[in-house]
Design brief:
It is built from 27 helices and 23 strands. With 818 residues, it is α/β, with parallel strands linked by helices. Strand 10 and strand 11 form a beta hairpin. Helix 9 packs parallel to helix 11. It is globular and about 105 Å long.
Length: 818
């Protein structure tokens, strides 16, 4: 409706309708920058006001401006309505952690998870015996589950009755890095949990949505039955039916390093190939048809319908995922304008596709793929539309790769991602190979197997392995070059990268001699910056000492910065092949702050929730000194490749400007938690100290209070903060220690509703009885402490988080530690 409205009231020009669509799209996108949902009364009032400007405006300028404002508000209201409906589905707090029974059907393909688990999504049809006070319609309609301890069992069917233990959507919350909570909200999961019991449920009503997922699961099983013996089966399943669940960590590492993940996501490239193939076949058929079968326009419409049908069929076979749906819309809209409505600007179908995507999926802006897809298409339109002569296929391929590489670089930087320089080389060969060889071979081979009844399966698998094996050989070779080639990529702010990208795109669009000289100068300066940047290991200066306690779930990691010095205390948890706080939080966070060098890395002890991802951190940053309460165990973790000498927990402290660092370790010689290296950070200017205690237990607490302990307890400070020992475990924070500590704040670093149950209620009661204010990263997210002259300024990231994370009545709003 808004599209028609915008088109009818903007000077009756195509430019007006495009501007209206862009305004509507900006309204949808604007919503996801807000920390609170706009109240409906205010939205409706604003819409009425600008509608009055459209109807009653005296000047053309006022009418046009009011119309664009109306389109923006309609987009904002459209997205707000959908977001509010999604947030209205909530798991009540009293159901968290309780064993409850639900029934429903699978709404994605189950995938193998960590520790032998099976992960899948359930579309809930019924909540069995919920509390009578709870409205079943407001309970989650879609939940994300993991089935542990299944001993290799498969799910008994597509429709299931499950005993589950659930919790509200939750993930780590940091300024930078991956946010699981964003992903859950975007995909409509309003609860997550584990499975405790499974049984078949044929009584569940199976509508068209259920039937489609059941059919797609049978397709996946058929593909697995036919091709599971292939060496390249994970890639076959990804490219044929969009099932990426079989890709290994090695696959993902190679694809990330070479910037080719898009090749295994069924998107515009794959649907475009289907459209081209179907178009060629339809063209042959129409040329062979008698001339009396319709005129030119009728034939074009018939061709469009058949091509769109072919793309739709492939999208359904590929799982009809979010990127597939988005690509299908773009291909269909582009095909319509190409085959039927030819005499329009290429930007018209681009804007119409953008509008339809956001109209059908207002949550699309939460996907990085949304920005990259439309960004890539926009860059290609900018470079290729309106050229006087079409470039040859080779020149066109090179131009396209350079344009997309340069154009998406600032966009990726703005999204907190890096642009692999090796990706330019990898895609230069990988895209045509996948387009011209791999995908036609997969389609033709599958068709041959169906025609032969499986007789040609072995030969087809051999062909699949050959073409995909060559692809992986090429990508792995490029991957080996990725690290040295990355030195050619100087780091810069997204704005500076956007300027550089704009100049490169201008050169590609207008190959004028002056632009070429400008490009050569810029590229030369770029190379010099890269060479100089490779030697620069200094860090940006900070005006005041700053401490960040990252939210890493059940683990610990703290960043301390003063001037240009950086100290990190612990690196958080790691489960190999599943999760690494270093990869998801520390590296993105440090890069966003401009950190190039870690002056001192302190690892309290060697437990995996305190020293995970060491090798990855050491490969990403220069590290000056590493010390730990368990130096031998940490050295074993690092291995010989690091070249680091791990020092014991320091016996002497040191000072960086206004911050003093003091250390202590138990003399008991016990390994593990008891060996934790304790660090006290003292700021004399504000009379503030912070104790980082690792996982010490009551034995070490008593030792600290004894004659061989420390004098920190006797030092009077105006503000004292402590990280609760061992995440608030009942084995720590004895009443004597809490009393002697006289802290003002205690900070728990624990996972939300983790199976360990930290912090323990008894521990919380002790601190509460001592009148100590409590914070918990599971509730607060990342905690930032800025040390000012008049005392510490403590900030919780949840207060600045988006509305679906910190909104009223949601998990973090209701989550507090006494």
């Amino acid at each position: 409706m808004s599209y028609l409205l915008c088109d009818d009231h903007t000077l009756e020009t195509g430019a007006g309708s495009v501007a209206g669509i862009i305004a509507f799209s900006c309204g949808v996108i604007l919503l996801y920058q807000l920390t609170v949902l706009p109240p409906y009364p205010i939205l409706f009032l604003a819409i009425l006001v600008v509608t009055g400007g459209v109807i009653c405006g005296k000047s053309l300028w006022l009418k046009r401006t009011s119309l664009w404002a109306l389109c923006l508000l309609l987009g904002l209201a459209w997205a707000c309505w959908h977001a509010n409906a999604r947030l209205s589905e909530r798991l009540p707090g009293e159901l968290e952690g309780a064993r409850i029974t639900v029934s429903g059907y699978l709404c994605d393909l189950p995938q193998a998870g960590s520790f032998g688990s099976l992960r899948f999504s359930l579309c809930v049809s019924r909540w069995h015996h919920p509390d009578d006070r709870i409205d079943p319609q407001r309970l989650p309609h879609k939940i994300r589950l993991a089935w542990y301890g299944r001993d290799g069992q498969a799910l008994p069917g597509h429709r299931l009755r499950l005993d589950v233990v659930l919790k509200q959507p939750h993930g780590t919350l940091n300024s930078n890095g991956f946010r699981y909570e964003d992903w859950l909200f975007r995909h409509g999961y309003r609860a997550t949990g584990t499975v405790r019991g499974v049984s078949d449920a044929p009584f569940v009503t199976c509508g068209w949505h259920c039937q489609y997922h059941q059919w797609h699961q049978s397709v996946a099983q058929a593909v697995h039955q036919r091709f599971s013996d292939a060496r390249q089966y994970p890639l076959i399943a990804s490219l044929l039916i969009g099932n990426r669940g079989h890709l290994t960590d090695e696959h993902w590492h190679t694809l990330r390093a070479t910037g080719t993940i898009h090749l295994v996501a069924i998107s515009g490239l794959h649907l475009g190939l289907v459209a081209i193939g179907a178009g060629l076949i339809v063209r042959r058929l129409l040329l062979a048809a008698p001339a009396r079968w319709g005129g030119e326009r009728a034939r074009r419409k018939a061709a469009f319908i058949l091509v769109a049908a072919a793309c739709l069929i492939y999208a359904l076979v590929a799982g009809f995922s979010v990127p597939t749906r988005r690509a299908l819309i773009m291909v269909i809209v582009g095909g319509w304008y190409l085959l039927v409505a030819r005499d329009v600007s290429a930007w018209r179908p681009f804007s119409v596709a953008l509008f339809i995507v956001l109209l059908m999926d207002p949550f699309a802006p939460l996907d990085q793929g949304f920005w990259l897809s439309f960004g890539a298409v926009g860059v290609l339109l900018l470079v290729f539309t309106g050229r006087l002569g079409a470039p040859g296929w080779l020149k066109g391929l090179v131009l396209a790769q350079l344009a997309v590489f340069a154009g998406l670089w600032p966009l990726l930087a703005g999204l907190g991602q890096s642009q692999p320089v090796a990706g330019l080389l990898a895609n230069l060969l990988a895209i045509p190979w996948v387009s011209l060889v791999v995908m036609p071979a997969l389609f033709a081979g599958t068709f041959l197997i169906l025609l032969s009844g499986g007789a040609l399966t072995d030969w087809v698998i051999f062909g699949f392995d050959s073409v995909l094996g060559l692809l992986m050989v090429w990508l792995e070779w490029v991957e080996a070059l990725a690290a040295p080639v990355a030195l050619l990529a100087p780091t810069a702010a997204p704005l500076l990268l956007a300027v550089l990208a704009g100049v490169i795109l201008l050169v590609l669009r207008y190959p004028d001699q002056r632009f070429r000289l400008m490009a050569a100068s810029l590229l030369g300066a770029w190379g010099l910056l890269a060479a100089a940047g490779a030697q620069v290991t200094s860090n940006p200066m900070v005006e005041r000492p700053e401490i960040r306690i990252w939210d890493v779930g059940q683990g610990l990691s703290v960043l301390v910065r003063v001037d240009d010095n950086v100290l990190i205390y612990d690196t958080g948890p790691e489960v190999r092949g599943v999760f690494s706080a270093v990869e998801s939080t520390l590296i993105p966070g440090l890069k966003a702050l401009g950190v190039n060098r870690i002056d001192h890395l302190v690892l309290s002890h060697a437990d995996s929730d305190h020293s995970g991802g060491l090798g990855l951190l050491a490969s990403a940053f220069e590290i000056g000194l590493i010390s730990s309460g368990e130096p031998e165990a940490i050295a074993d973790k690092l291995g010989n490749r690091s070249g680091f000498a791990v020092e014991p927990c320091p016996q002497q402290g040191f000072t960086w400007q206004d911050l003093a660092f003091e250390f202590w370790r138990s003399n008991s010689g016990r390994p593990g938690n008891d060996a934790s290296c304790v660090l006290r950070v003292y700021h004399a200017v504000s009379s503030t100290d912070l104790w980082l205690t690792g996982d010490i237990t009551r034995r070490q607490e008593a030792e600290m209070l004894g004659p061989d302990g420390v004098d920190w307890f006797d030092q009077a400070v105006a503000h004292r903060m402590v990280l609760a020992p061992h995440h608030g475990s009942k084995t720590s924070s004895s009443a004597t220690w809490v009393s002697a500590l006289r802290a003002d704040w205690v900070i728990y670093t624990a996972g939300y509703r983790h199976r360990f149950g930290h912090p323990h209620p008894d521990v919380m009661s002790r601190y509460q009885a001592a009148d100590v204010q409590a914070l918990n990263t599971a509730c607060a997210g990342e905690i930032t402490i800025e040390l000012n002259q008049d005392g510490p300024k403590i900030s919780e990231l949840r207060h600045a988080s988006r509305f679906w994370i910190g909104g009223r009545g949601l998990t973090r709003d209701q989550c507090n530690s006494p």
